Amino acid sequence: MPHLSILAARFYEDIADELVRGATAYLDGKGASYDILAVPGAFEIPAAVRLCIESGRYGGYVALGCVIRGETTHYDYVCSESARGLNMLALKHKAAIGYGILTVENPEQAWVRAAVSQGNKGAIAAEAALRMMEIKAELGLK
């Protein structure tokens, strides 16, 4: 049975909760087990995934969070660095990562994407992580 780590950036707690709700419902439906780790924000998710990789406890990772554009360039750095960091980890460590970090202009866009009844990006990220785990298994990789 697959065991995953769900890493949820807590900066926007209500949106994070909805993303986690979608991811856990999907994983429960597939019979996968998981741990949920709270991370301060999207920027910290790659470092937390790296720690999880080093722990050897997980076969896959679901990265969840939300970055909403503000008045400064902070948004651009957080979005690009969190995506770059996760991609680097996936490539370097053959990590099965589902990317569910929303990058949006406003809270309304975030809710359309996060809501289980609408975009359900938490479930989509969980599905991606499981599929990447399957691909690794099909290729005989650990």
Write a structural description.
With 142 residues, the protein is of the alpha/beta class. The protein contains five helices and four strands. The protein has helices at residues 13-29, 45-55, 74-93, 107-114, 121-138, and strands at 3-9, 33-39, 60-68, 97-104. The chain has a four-stranded parallel β-sheet with strand order 2-1-3-4, sandwiched between helices.
Number of DSSP helices? 5
* Strand arrangement in the largest pleated sheet: 2-1-3-4
Q: What is the straight-line distance between the termini?
A: 14 Å
- Structural class call reads alpha/beta
Give the amount of beta strand, in percent.
15-25%
Taking Cα atoms only, what radius of gyration do you get, to the nearest Å?
A: 14 Å
Low-confidence stretches: none
Sequence of secondary-structure elements: EHEHEHEHH
Mean pLDDT: 96
The number of strands is: 4
| Percentage of residues assigned to helices | 40-55%
Shape: globular
**Biggest β-sheet: count, sense, barrel?**
4 strands, parallel
